[in-house]
Amino acid sequence: MSKSQSIVSSLVQRIQSGELAVGVRLPPQRQLAAQLGVDLTTVTRAYNELKRMGLVEGRAGSGSFVRDAAAASDPGFDLSMNVPPQPPGLAERMAQDLGLLLAAGGGTLGYQPSGGTARDRAAGARWLARRLGAVVEERVVVAAGAQSALFALLDLLLQRGETLACAALTYPGVRAIALRLGLRLVGLAQDADGIDPGAFEDLCRKAPPKALYLVPTIASPTTATMPLARRQAIAATARRHGVALVEDDAYGALAESAPPPLAALAPEIAWHVASLSKCATPALRIAYVAAPDPRAAVQLTMGLRAVSLMPSPLLAALATRWIGDGTLDAFTAAIRAENRARQSLAAGALPGADLAAKPDGNHLWLGLPAGWTGAGFAAAAWESGLLVVPADAFDVTGSAPEAVRLSLGGAPDRAGLGRALARLGELLAWPGTPVSAIV
Known about the structure:
Blueprint: H1 3-17, H2 29-36, H3 40-52, E1 56-59, E2 63-66, H4 69-72, E3 77-78, H5 90-104, H6 118-132, E4 140-143, H7 146-157, E5 163-167, H8 172-181, E6 184-188, E7 190-191, E8 194-195, H9 197-206, E9 211-214, H10 228-241, E10 244-248, H11 262-265, E11 270-275, E12 287-290, H12 294-308, H13 313-325, H14 327-349, E13 354-357, E14 363-367, H15 374-383, E15 386-387, E16 389-390, E17 403-407, H16 414-429
Parallel strand pairs: 3-15, 5-6, 5-9, 9-10, 10-11
Antiparallel strand pairs: 1-2, 4-12, 7-8, 11-12, 13-14, 14-17, 16-17
Helix pairs in contact: 1-3, 2-3, 5-13, 6-13, 7-8, 7-12, 9-10, 14-16
């Protein structure tokens, strides 16, 4: 047995026997190393293993403490992936309905058109019509998730070297697409209501971009929802300057009250991408795209054929079934209700924190106190068993604020989320970035 394993074994026995009670602070690593006559890295390895086992937690600036039994059952929390909380009965309903679809046959195990069958496109048109108004199915394309739809769409609209405008803080997936396609990203100034229409107008007067990418409702990471007047102003500017609008409406179905999408205000220049990942489950890799007209839908379909060949026929059929029988609406309503409860929990757990949030959304935006950087806070959170995303992951302009995005859906339940938020609160109370424990 190595020296670090011996330390782990000894401390585990003392914790399990109750000699080291819940909340007891372990000796500082340097002190224990001196007492045992070992080097510091040996003790560090032992403490890290105890953290991995869920028996010990690190508190920024304070040390390592014995955790309680409840905390030990969930040693870490991923608040980085923006997933919705899983609605009750989701897995069981998926298993049941997928079984029924497989038993019925109907081509769900074969190849299908790249843009979706007529039945699946019609279902998508019905679902989109709630926010866009009447949509003919010939304008609808079914894609294997929003990311593949956005890749094919931006590849269709822009050539290498051309400019794609977006918010200064934008979806990292679009940054990755722009890099892959050789596009020039220009980040526009934004505030609590989203992209500044004046900044977009100024850019268009100087050198109009080929397209503008935006998330107008509960934007990630800032949670901004653009008011109607701002949407109208951006649509008017885009019309005047011939700029295509790429509207990523990932959270639109969650917002019980939001202004009309830009694709409802300017359908002739807007491409509307609506995924089921945030309002149902990421496992349902289906997105619906409303193109400006049927010809444009055909062009996008050709691009998707090269990117992903086709959406999963089985998942597309499941989405069609759930749209038709109300299951999708029920799951979306359950997610919305759970989001509201979790947002309320977060507001109560982080009193006085600089939070931006929307009640129906999966995430919130946390501005950091003086002394913290986004990267420093994310690193300290990681040491405490938490994963959060610093602002620079979304940054286009090189001037990211000191902030992090917290996604509330990843915790398995509210109790787990409460423990994660308590750890965040401890970090926020620490006056500045702690000294790194790396040696």
